[in-house]
Design goal:
The complex is a heterodimer of chains A (440) and B (313). Chain A is α/β, with parallel strands linked by helices and 440 residues long. Chain A contains 14 helices and 20 strands. Chain B is of the alpha/beta class and 313 residues long. In chain B, 38% of the residues lie in helices and 15% in strands. Classes of the chains: A alpha/beta (440), B alpha/beta (313).
């Protein structure tokens, strides 16, 4: 059984490929990239898809997704989150551990992975650092690693105690998995709601100073250096964090970081209308921070683009700002925001952007993915970078409708998402007819 | 301008000079009603006004109730502590329920900045912000301006010093937006811990030395130091606060000889203000309270009364 994607433009940053080429998939794996003659394949049964005008990339990988299951299935389930991921072009996603029953033990990690196997994409598990995510006692990291967890994180409940974090990092280093850290000094951010600055002063909402993030970025970099652990800084939002990362990398430390579309697209001025969908943690910062994040993406300081997809139900968001939950959904808007805000506005080439969405996250998690190398699993995303997309939250596959981008006109559509050689999203027409997406 | 062309009063930041002028002019004619022996006009007969307060309040709430009743509106008052809110009813459901009962205008006080904006989006009824978190308290800003106007005959060119907990103060924010639009100079003064972040980017002068802030001021508006701030580390002690930032007779001498002293209440006598100053010759604190009723009558009239002339009502 083979599938031939014919006439597209292939971008595979891991191999330095950025050219017109056909892609042959055989038995769920990448068989060949190049000029492929259909006649040569006709001895076996197979399918040919004409994807002229489209771009073929390795399947996108999101290292920062909240799937809410187990515990808050009214917000999202692993199934709906995976469907949203597929619609957004993602073939692998890493489930953050801050679920209401946290993966702080083997059973929950196995549950997440087994639910993930029922979806059409690869759902990976990230285990909690501490028991109950309380930041006090280290969880059974070794046993959870054994069960298949590929990373450890304190996202949502950042570990404040440096000694606890040190020990977690020592364990993560021993196991050879990265520590994904949410950097926030909770005593300093206190009960803040938005970025601290002139805008928080005007709208009268409590501020979270950038220093609450940067000081913890610095601490975690130092603890990484102390322990030899691969420290990955999650959702970098401000200039100070970009600067700290740049200095750490210049010193040759084993550190990586990610940012999310909201941090290169929106500023804290988005909060002047008190739209709870703009309440995220870390908060939207200033235009100077947005520029710094873009500069960090451009010069390679920021390795990865993730979503921090954080679905919430209406009753968590149709409330007062002070009690609204933090977070916005991101899986189904990430790619168009990357193309519109980073590629079309000149911060990154399409190939550089794809690198931060594929091979860079694959390397972080040690996955055999993120590239179209011969023999690799055929996880593929087919894009139409020039197609206009109007964000319509009511049509999201995610149960979460909490996006500030509803109604935005963007460029860059996902035509199809293929996982292990099988279509997880989109349906291309057979060869001979014009390629089109039938369902979206 | 004789008509307020807006559904809601959410803050003074987005209000124009002519809108503020209209409200102040209308409030002056409302004050005449308050001086009559029979304080009642039928202007808003058949209109229903609801005060929905998520925070404790004596003067603002009573002031709105008196204003609405003077104009013959029906008033219902809901306090979070004694309503279905304690049963867990959301703000949204509370609003929709009350709107379904025919409330024409909501007067909302809430601990969350932006709650009145949320209400204004949620209901078709009018919304007046009676204080939202640390954001704005527009009716206080308006009554302060009315009081200053009565005392000085003008707002343009006045130097107004606002002293105290600027960080948490919605009164300070409404003062600064309103007064600067009307041509006054606003000075904000308080300990650094109680000044808002990047406050110097606002069109104000910022001081942490109280004597410098008062120098030559026409108006000194003293803000309340909230009890909960005293125990949360914003300043070392009440004693030291009173010494460094409290308004006393001696300090007030630095202002203009005819200085007007204001306080939005409730006062902590002996903390932010000494009793002799609070009750002294420069104080207009009780006039502020009366003007509060007049300003709120003006807003209710302008939002609900349409174009009819109050004088003949």
């Amino acid at each position: 059984m083979w599938v031939l994607l014919k006439g597209g433009h292939v971008i595979d940053p891991a191999q330095g490929i950025d050219k017109a080429a056909d892609v042959l998939i055989r038995d769920g794996r990448i068989a060949e990239i190049g000029k492929i003659d259909v006649q040569s394949l006709n001895s076996d049964p197979g399918e040919v898809y004409d994807i002229a005008g489209k771009v073929v990339t390795p399947g996108l990988i999101d290292v920062h997704v909240h799937l809410r299951e187990p515990g808050e299935e009214h917000k999202e389930t692993i199934a709906t989150g995976a469907a949203a991921a597929a619609a957004g072009g993602f073939t692998s996603i890493l489930a953050m551990p801050n679920t209401k029953t946290a993966p702080d033990n083997r059973a929950v990690v196995e549950y997440v992975l087994s639910q993930g196997k029922r979806t059409p994409i690869n759902v990976l598990a990230c285990c909690a650092m501490t028991k109950g995510m309380e930041g006090k006692e280290m969880a059974e990291l070794g046993d959870m690693f054994d069960a298949g967890a590929v990373a450890v994180s304190d996202d949502g409940y950042p570990v404040q105690n440096a000694l606890v974090m040190r020990r977690v990092m020592e364990y993560a280093s021993m196991l050879g998995i990265p520590a994904l850290v949410h950097c926030e000094d909770k005593l300093l951010s206190a009960d803040g709601i938005m970025n601290e600055g002139i805008t928080s002063t005007i709208v009268g909402l409590r501020g979270i100073p950038a220093a609450a993030e940067v000081s913890m970025v610095e601490r975690n970099i130092m603890l990484g250096e102390l322990t030899g652990c691969h420290v990955h800084i999650q959702h970098v939002s401000c200039a100070g964090s970009v600067d700290a990362m740049r200095r750490a990398k210049a010193r040759g430390l084993k550190v990586t970081c990610e940012t999310c579309p909201q941090y290169f697209t929106l500023t804290d001025e988005a909060l002047v209308d008190y739209d709870t969908n703009t309440k995220v943690n870390p908060p939207l910062r200033t235009s100077a921070d947005v520029e710094a994040v873009k500069a960090g993406l451009a010069d390679g300081t920021i390795d990865i683009i993730a979503t921090d997809h954080a679905p919430h139900s209406a009753e968590d968001k149709e409330v007062e700002m002070t009690i609204a939950s933090f977070g916005m959904v991101g899986l189904e808007t990430a790619l168009p925001l990357v193309i519109t805000k980073l590629v079309n506005e000149g911060t990154l080439t399409l190939s550089q952007a794809i690198e931060k969405l594929t091979i860079a996250p694959a390397k972080l998690l040690g996955l055999n993915a993120g590239t179209l190398t011969e023999g690799a699993p055929a996880d593929i995303t087919i894009l139409d970078p020039g197609a206009e997309v109007i964000v319509d939250s009511s049509s999201f596959k995610s149960m979460g409708r909490n996006t500030p981008f509803n109604g935005w006109k963007l460029k860059g559509a996902v035509a199809a998402t293929i996982v292990g050689g099988t279509f997880a999203y989109g349906q291309l027409s057979p060869v001979g007819e014009k390629c089109e997406v039938l369902s979206r | 301008m004789n008509k307020l062309d807006r559904k809601d009063i959410l803050g003074l930041q987005d209000m124009t000079q002519s809108e503020i002028q209209l409200i102040l002019d209308t409030a002056i004619s409302m004050k005449e009603i308050l001086n009559r022996p029979v304080k009642k006009v039928p202007t808003l007969r058949g209109k229903t006004v609801c005060t929905l307060f998520y925070e404790p309040s004596t003067r603002t709430r009573t002031s709105f109730e008196v204003a609405a009743k003077t104009l013959s509106a029906d008033v219902s008052s809901i306090a979070a502590a004694t309503s279905a809110i304690v049963k867990g009813e959301s703000f949204k459901d509370t609003l929709l329920t009350l709107q379904a009962m025919g409330v024409d205008l909501f007067i909302i006080r809430h601990q969350s900045g932006g709650a009145p904006h949320f209400a204004a989006r949620t209901v078709k009824s009018h919304v007046i912000n009676a204080g939202d978190g640390m954001h704005e308290h527009p009716t206080q800003g308006l009554l302060d301006m009315l009081t200053m106007l009565e005392e000085k005959g003008r707002l343009d060119g006045l130097v107004v010093t606002v002293v105290g907990d600027i960080l948490h103060s919605r009164v300070a924010r409404s003062n600064l937006w309103g007064l600067t639009k009307m041509g006054a100079t606003v000075r904000l003064a308080g300990p650094k811990t109680l000044l808002p972040p990047e406050v110097d980017k606002l069109p104000v002068e910022v001081y942490s030395n109280i004597d410098e802030a008062i120098e030559g001021a026409d108006i000194v508006n003293v803000l309340r130091i909230q009890l909960e701030r005293m125990n949360s580390g914003f300043f070392p002690s009440v004693r030291e606060y009173a010494k460094l930032f409290g308004i006393n007779k001696e300090r007030l001498r630095r202002a203009k000889p005819d200085v007007t002293l204001m306080h939005p209440g409730p006062m902590n006598r002996g903390v932010e203000i000494t009793p002799d100053v609070a009750d002294g010759e420069f104080s207009v604190i009780t006039d502020q309270v009366t003007n509060g009723v007049a300003v709120r009558m003006a807003l209710l009239y302008l939002l609900l009364g349409g174009g009819s002339n109050v004088g003949t009502a």
